[in-house]
From TrEMBL:
Organism annotation: Aliiruegeria lutimaris
InterPro entries: HTH-type_LysR_regulators (IPR050950), LysR_HTH_N (IPR000847), LysR_subst-bd (IPR005119), TF_PcaQ (IPR012787), WH-like_DNA-bd_sf (IPR036388), WH_DNA-bd_sf (IPR036390)
Keyword terms of this UniProt record: DNA-binding, Transcription, Transcription regulation
Limits of the HTH lysR-type domain: 9-66
Phylogenetic lineage: Bacteria, Pseudomonadati, Pseudomonadota, Alphaproteobacteria, Rhodobacterales
BP-aspect Gene Ontology terms: 3,4-dihydroxybenzoate catabolic process; positive regulation of DNA-templated transcription
Protein name (database record): Transcriptional regulator, LysR family
GO molecular function term, any single one: DNA binding
Similarity field: Belongs to the LysR transcriptional regulatory family.
């Protein structure tokens, strides 16, 4: 049975335990924490009673850890370090220094998720400048590798493009076939007919290109004669509204227009286009306080229903 964190464990319990181990003496730990020796002994006893085992052995040689104490010490020190990092981050941001967080966002994320994340982030860290760069997968990953971006948020790319990149999944997203309201294909939706019109198609190097090719092959759709290759949300929205073009794009890019009815999703089977969207970072980079706050903002937004 997994033990749950007991709410009776307080910060003072963790702090006293770690300091006793570091000083290897009750007396010295009490002096460091400006406590009396009986007070620190009582705090340690409370912690051991809550956990239900001895953490330290007291003898003439001083203090030694039990096996349970060794395990608990490792995580207690990690907890204190994480708390200190958080306090440092709050202090750094509160000083009003010029802190900038550079984030890359793939088109579907830039259109659907980033506006809410940016608003949440600005409330959590108003002194930090958030610099957002959007673009295709390959372009953003290259900027990330060269240190021009702190992180990228978007679809997981092909294995060869993800070498040396850490990916943390957030949610799954589909590729959609989108047209203007009143498009003639809506009367008789058939994927084999998309070649009758101009198709806005994801270019080579985009994260969704292999998924689109896979779904077309699965449905027996051959070469598309008239293509415009682009993942630009601004171009796609405007061009599809003014023409009979078919736009193949990630759900998030056109989500707002689909919701208000100005664009319509074609009822094609797109199940195999499902792919993970997540945060991408360099494994050698340490998360900054601003970066951790950004992750908090993302988690907060994703805890709400996505439109």
């Amino acid at each position: 049975m997994k033990l749950m964190i007991d709410r009776r464990i307080k910060f003072r319990h963790i702090q006293c335990f770690v300091e006793i181990v570091r000083q290897r003496s009750m007396k010295n730990a009490a002096e460091r924490l400006f406590l009396t020796q009986p007070a620190i002994s009582k705090t340690l006893k409370e912690l051991e009673e809550i956990i239900g085992c001895d953490l330290l052995v007291r003898n003439r040689g001083g203090i030694s850890l039990t096996r349970q104490g060794e395990i608990f010490l490792h995580f207690a020190e990690m907890s204190l370090a994480a708390l200190q990092q958080g306090l440092d981050g709050v202090e750094q941001i509160g000083l009003g220094g010029k802190v900038t967080l550079a984030v890359g966002a793939l088109p579907s994320v830039a259109a659907r998720l980033m506006p809410e994340v940016a608003q949440e982030f600005s409330e959590l860290a108003p002194e930090v400048t958030l610099r957002i760069t959007d673009g295709p997968h390959g372009y953003l990953i290259d900027l990330l590798r060269h240190g021009q971006l702190d992180l990228v948020i978007g679809r997981l790319g092909q294995p060869e493009t993800m070498k040396g990149i850490t990916f943390t999944q957030l949610y799954n997203e589909y590729v959609e076939f989108v047209v203007r309201a009143g498009h003639p294909l809506l009367d008789d939706p058939d994927m084999h007919r998309i070649g009758e019109w101009t198709v806005i198609f994801p270019p080579e190097g985009s994260a969704i290109r292999p998924l689109v090719e896979r779904v077309l092959i699965a449905h027996g759709v051959g070469e598309i004669p008239r293509k415009i290759e682009s993942v630009s949300g601004a171009f796609g929205r405007n061009f599809v509204r003014m023409s009979d073009a078919i736009w193949i794009i990630s759900t998030g890019v056109a989500a707002k227009e689909i919701a208000d009815g100005s664009l319509v999703r074609l009822p094609f089977d797109n199940a195999i286009t499902s792919g993970p969207v997540g945060l991408m970072t360099r494994p050698d980079s340490q998360p900054s306080p601003a970066g951790e706050i950004f992750r908090m903002a993302v988690d907060t937004v994703l805890s709400r229903p996505l439109d």
